[in-house]
Amino acid sequence: MPNMNVVNMAGKKVGEIALSDKVFGAKVNEAVLHTAVRAYLMNQRQGTQSTLTRSEVSGGGRKPWKQKGTGHARQGSTRSPQWTHGGIALGPKPRSYRIELNKQTKRAAMFSALSSKVAAEEMIVVDAITATEYKTKNMVAMLGALGAAKKTLVVLPENNEFVIKSFANIEGVKTTQWNTINVYDILNCDTLIVAQDAVAKIEEVYAR
């Protein structure tokens, strides 16, 4: 069972926390992580791209010239793909890129992502991340005290508008709640900052 120091927003140690082996001490499965990240990125695609086929391009109702005797190749429409302003042959049409993962794969990917951050010492547990006003300066000071890298993911136990909006103007910092974290964001950050209450809620759901 991995143990981690718990620090406050000033970066001072205020205690320790024993993390769940199942959630934060699992063996990292790179194949499952690849599958989860690919599914996440594919699911972000809207799939709304569309081109016009020859039947959808306006015009072209008249045969350009008679079938024989002109010396030209026979043509049936000026909206065929080989003509300027013609339709597109085999172009993209609206489609879904969505990839569905089963529950077991999702859980395994989450365990691997969180465990990889603990193993790499890129996860920081903070006793509480609070704010009573919109103050970006206070959050910048916290990140500096914690030694957070430029790309940081902050996981909160609940929706706190003061905290979220105070982080919003800081480049490279993203906030999320414990129940909306995803594998891509965890792997994409250099530092993972998690509130202690958020750790407890993550373990309550995933360690069962």
Features:
single chain, 6 strands
Concise structural overview:
The chain is of the alpha/beta class. Helix content is 34%, strand content 14%.
Characterise this structure.
There is one protein chain. With 208 residues, the chain is an alpha/beta fold. The two termini are 16 Å apart. The chain has a 6-stranded mixed sheet with strand order 2-1-3-6-4-5. β4, α5 and β5 form a beta-alpha-beta unit. Helix content is 34%, strand content 14%. It contains 7 helices and 6 strands, in the order ββαααβαβαβαβα. The model has no long low-confidence stretch (mean pLDDT 93).
Strand content: 5-15%
Radius of gyration: 27 Å
| Widest sheet, order of strands | 2-1-3-6-4-5
Looking at the structure, what is the overall shape? elongated
Poorly predicted ranges:
none
Helix fraction bin: 25-40%
Secondary-structure blueprint:
Blueprint: E1 3-7, E2 13-18, H1 21-24, H2 30-43, H3 103-119, E3 123-126, H4 136-146, E4 152-156, H5 161-168, E5 173-177, H6 183-188, E6 191-195, H7 196-206
Parallel strand pairs: 1-3, 3-6, 4-5, 4-6
Antiparallel strand pairs: 1-2
